[in-house]
Amino acid sequence: MAFAMRVKVPPNSANLQEARHRTFDFFRAACRSIPSIMDIYNLYDVVNPSQLRSTIAAEIRKNAHITNPKVIDMLLFKAMEELSNITEHAKQRHHIIGQYVVGNQGLVQDAANKDENVSNFLKNFYKSNYF
User: Fold this and answer.
1) Phi-psi category of 4—alpha, beta or left, where left has phi over 0 and alpha has psi -120 to 50?
2) Tell me: the pLDDT tens digits for 68-114?
3) What is the distance between the alpha carbons of residues 62 and 112, in angstroms, rounded to a whole number?
4) CA neighbor of 79 nearest in space, from 98, 100, 97
């Protein structure tokens, strides 16, 4: 018989207020894990903890328009899974840097001089092809 790993799934939120409370709890847990993430992936040379905290807050704010508690619970489950993968070192350093430090806009310190001598055509092309 194959070994099946059981994942404990939290119960569904009864209403929007409970889902909102769970979102704040997740944000607190994610912020508390930032120092260990910085140590595990040695991110001190690329980003500081406040920038990671801002990135987490921005990811949560992207879904602020959602009002269905079931959808919020599903997004929280995905976020908890992502956080556990990161804290259990299931990702490599370049994954973390690419997803949460660089993102779609490039490094913050490189953004000023990135497009100095580029034509408008290339600026629009680059903007449309970054995912």
Assistant:
1) beta
2) 999 999 999 999 999 999 999 999 998 899 888 887 555 544 545 55
3) 24
4) 100
- In the block, residue with structure tokens 């009002």: 67
Residue 28: both structure tokens together:
């607190």
Q: What is the pLDDT of residue 125?
A: 80
**What is the three-class DSSP state of 13?**
coil
Q: Quick one: tokens of 62?
A: 């992207």
Tokens of 89: 């070192």
One-letter amino acid of 57: A
Q: Which amino acid is at 91?
A: K
Distance CA 78, CA 73 (A): 9
Cα separation, 56 vs 31, in Å, equals 8
